[in-house]
Amino acid sequence: MSGRLEGARIGCAMTGSFCTFSAVFDAWLALRGEGAELFPIMSFNAASLDTRFYPACKAVGILEGITGRKVWNQLAQVEPIGPKKLLDLLVVAPCTGNTLAKIAAGITDTPVALAVKSHLRNGRPVLIAVSTNDGLGASARNIGELLPRKHVYFVPFQQDDWRGKPNSLVADFALLADSAVEALAERQIQPLLRAK
Description:
By secondary structure, this protein is of the alpha/beta class. It has helices spanning 21-33, 44-48, 56-67, 75-78, 97-105, 111-120, 140-146, 176-184, and strands at residues 9-14, 37-42, 89-95, 126-132, 152-154, 157-159, 169-171. It has one domain (9-184): Flavin prenyltransferase-like (Rossmann fold). The chain contains eight helices and seven strands. Strand 4, helix 7 (140-146) and strand 5 (152-154) form a beta-alpha-beta unit. The mean pLDDT is 97.
């Protein structure tokens, strides 16, 4: 029995919101379960920094195990995504405030940011799963910049700790597969804002 994403070539791009990695790995497994063909991409930091959540080698190994491919974590590896039309959809999950800013400003000095630029050159969809402590602070302007941008879609997000971190936003990673189905059809899944 085929899934909703059967045959879709989806880039799985991870940036350094390390506390969300476990939920994001589950989301990639859900995409695989829906029949997607997955291509792993990691930012320099996501691929190289050891944290209290994961040693870098373990995080890389988990993503490679899920996708069945070696991680692309260098600029030269992701640049061909656009020219060779390698992907149908590029998902950035988690997407940090730093990466949001780079995408909004067209800065392409990391593998994930360059992958987004390269993919968008063909008018193909990008799906962003935000995870940032300043989503309602300094990063709010970048979310606002990207929301109306053509071919850019968001996984629904919410305040994850409004008492302790009132500016913090995080995507509902359990909705990533549903959001991917909609993004491939060039639709924003609704509702975008979720109550926790």
